[in-house]
Amino acid sequence: MGQDGTVSVPSQPQYFPVDGKPWRLAMGLRPLTVDRWIEVDDRREVELQQKHRLIKDARSKVVATLPSSLKAQEELEGLVSQNLEEFHSGVPIDFLQDPDPIVRASSAIQEDCCILESDDSEWILTAACVCFPSRWALTEKIDRNLTAIHAPVPGYETTLANPVDAFFDRLQPGQPKWRLNWTILDTDELHLPTDSAHRRPELLADLGDLTFRVERQTLRKMERSGAVVFTIRNYTTRLANACADEEGKSALLETLKTVRPDVATYKGWTPLLEPLISWLQGNS
Fold first, then answer.
1. What is the distance in angstroms between the CA of the first residue and the CA of the last residue of the chain?
2. 3-class DSSP state of 126
3. pTM over 0.70, yes/no
């Protein structure tokens, strides 16, 4: 804490999970230590303010819970409070006054939170507070299993459904994991439900002004309830900044060259893909 009483927090980390290999679906999970479960940076105040407004003004879009999830929600709230106190002691813990524990938990961190619980045959999304979706609707995901949640993703059912289900079944408390997911968008807005408008590429003065958006996702099994908490933290930057060095620019170019039409459609890249490849090649 500074002499003036302000809390000093680091700037956003720069994640660039593009390796230049052909586009592919992969879990890409890595071990996670509990001290890195929640990330705090200098965007915290503005992002929490936006979350609080969305919870107040658009609750039906950003909050969904099943009554059966209450115990898991309460456990999550306790874990968030404990983590902030233990690893982010200089940061104020400002839980919203709210009847749903998952909302109280999510209101104090930049991550969005989802809870999945097993009915002994499949994992079901039973509670979520997702203020910053990337063009998907929470109302279409609640009370669905993992395969149904990911149904719009091209190739998920044939490539990842079984490995993901198996991973959830074997995940143990004390062994959290994390992964990165990325996309390119025509806006840096964080709250992007499915009705968000798309800008046409010809209206962009510079394709470098597109947004490179990274989701840092974590998966952690809670000990008492046996539920899995899935967090999503979004980081955005101008595309030109994300691939400012030649190595990053080349990696993005080589990967985008291999994107299938169905993936481009799902990602909203169809009108952008050819102009993007040309821009990355220096021909724009």
1. 47
2. strand
3. yes
